[in-house]
Amino acid sequence: MSMPFYVSPEQLMKDRADFARKGIARGRSVAVVRYTDGLLFVSENPSAALHKVSELYDRIAFAAVGRYNEFENLRIAGVRLADMRGYSYDRRDVTGRGLANAYAQTLGTIFSSGGEKPYEIEIFVAEVGDGAADDQVFRLTFDGQVVEEKDHAVMGGAADSVTSYLRERYRLGLSRDEALRLAVAALGHNDSADRTIPPEDLEVAVLDRTRTQERKFKRLLPAVLRDVLGQGPGDMPGDAPGATPGESPSGPEPTAPAAPARTDPSVSPGEEPPVAP
Amino acid sequence: MTDARLPDAFLTPGTSSFSDFLASVSPDLLPSRRVLPPGDAAALAPHGTTIVAATFPGGVVIAGDRRATMGNVIAQRDIEKVFPADEYSAVGIAGTAGLAVEMVRLFQTELEHYEKIEGTTLSMDGKANRLSALIRNNLGMAMQGLAVVPLFAGYDLSQEIGRIFSYDVTGGRYEETAFHSVGSGSVFARGALKKLYRDDLDQGGTVTAVVQALYDAADDDSATGGPDLFRRIFPIVSVITAEGHTRLGQDEVAAVADAVVASRMQRPDGPSAPLT
């Protein structure tokens, strides 16, 4: 004779959250960094066909980590919602906030419904404004929480170490290339040893408000990335902010492990655990 | 639309076509689903008239006059009838203006939607066929006098040439070589282009030839507007090359139109073509 076990709601939600977090932690990170002309998205993604960053609408981009089929499904739903709204009202009426809300409701409902497994994903919905002050970045978690981010944000497996690296080195008024070097260095940063991510393994896109077209989303091709990032390990991007003297990034902060690690970029990307793209 | 959870239809894998999606989720938004009472509705809405397109080595030029008419009345003097469809194509519209503009909006969304979902653009023929399908769906209304006849021009990235497609009201799609024109003034525009067009013209020469053709259309067709020198309203001219779609600035078109008009003061019928 079997008795149904009682599981408290707290325990149920905790279990679901742990499950989702574990799934997300397996994937590599996506970073968004604000620069003077817009927003830059950088992720490590060896696949050239399966995207983690993509266009939702004129000024709005989507980036995600976690299970591919789940965030791809949401991406397509977002494109449909945006196009439908833009077609039935006007292009100006499609907003990042509206899309973030729709995603939040969807993720929240899935997370708290008993019938479905929670999505193992996190999403950025980012909108570039006419000026830097109007840029908006929303980070959505698996349970439908929405956090508005400023300047830079990271989600995915190594989000904590990448975020702390960005927080120490980010400054306002970065150019696109400076932001790119910083973000790539941050993604390669690791508590034990930094590594240089080859340009072929990067997926980079921008929402560039200076583009003359109505659609501001643009992917940066590998050739451009190679130009900006250089090839050799001597071009360690972490040194880039040093270009402005008196603003030394490796100041007397409690980030001692980062300094020796930079001389040892020997960990190959192949040693990373296999993940969804 | 509310901000609640995304409806299941949005989350269902399936079509990359926006109009197909619209047909299943919100068919009332499709222009073709409208039901008209019987009778001829042609006189109800303004009509757009002449659109001209011509290719040149490295691209294609598409241009339209600015007049919309309702019967014998000029409904609008500065209507726009040439629209970018995506980065490498543009569509010009003749026929019932309201429906045509709506169809262009649907077509633009259709191309962009496919591009975003699939991560790649449609081929030039694919785009031309999608437009064909949209026109075919409008046949019922076309038979009641609300016809839409677009001219589609674009740069084919794989063949690296400019291409022009014309359509009939049943959605029939015809590829045109060198140049073409649609609308009520099209016979005159085409006659002019036949004499002026050369396949070795550069972009500037092609733009001039197209503006000359529009002038001739306006000269002989009352529904086509010529350059409005007093209000400074000039044709819309779009150039599509490997670099993408550019709509020429009003100053640029004004300079060409002023030159054309000035030469017509000497010779009202326009430049002469050699007899042999």
Structure notes:
Chain A has 277 residues and is α+β, with helices and mostly antiparallel strands. Chain A has one domain: Aminohydrolase, N-terminal nucleophile (Ntn) domain (Glutamine Phosphoribosylpyrophosphate, subunit 1, domain 1, 4-Layer Sandwich), CATH 3.60.20.10. In chain A, 33% of the residues lie in helices and 20% in strands. In chain A, the strands form two sheets. In chain A, strands 8-1-2-9-10 form a five-stranded antiparallel β-sheet. Chain A has a five-stranded antiparallel β-sheet with strand order 3-4-5-6-7. In chain A, a hairpin with a 5-residue loop joins strand 6 and strand 7. By secondary structure, chain B is of the alpha+beta class. Chain B has one domain (43-266): Glutamine Phosphoribosylpyrophosphate, subunit 1, domain 1, CATH 3.60.20.10. Helix content of chain B is 36%, strand content 25%. Chain B contains eight helices and 13 strands. Chain B is globular, with a radius of gyration of 19 Å. At the A-B interface, strand 3, helix 2 and helix 3 of A face helix 2 and helix 3 of B. Chain B: The active site is at 49 (nucleophile).
Map the helices and strands:
The complex is a heterodimer of chains A (277) and B (276).
Chain A: H1 9-25, E1 30-35, E2 38-44, E3 53-57, E4 60-66, H2 68-88, H3 96-112, E5 121-127, E6 136-140, E7 146-149, E8 152-155, H4 159-169, H5 176-188, E9 202-208, E10 217-220, H6 222-229, H7 258-261
Antiparallel strand pairs in A: 1-2, 1-8, 2-9, 3-4, 4-5, 5-6, 6-7, 9-10
Chain B: H1 8-11, H2 18-25, E1 47-48, E2 51-56, E3 59-64, E4 68-70, E5 73-76, E6 82-86, E7 89-96, H3 97-118, H4 124-136, H5 139-143, E8 148-156, E9 161-167, E10 173-176, E11 179-182, H6 186-196, H7 203-220, E12 236-241, E13 244-247, H8 250-266
Antiparallel strand pairs in B: 1-4, 1-7, 2-3, 2-11, 3-12, 4-5, 6-7, 7-8, 8-9, 9-10, 12-13
Helix pairs in contact in B: 3-4, 6-7, 7-8
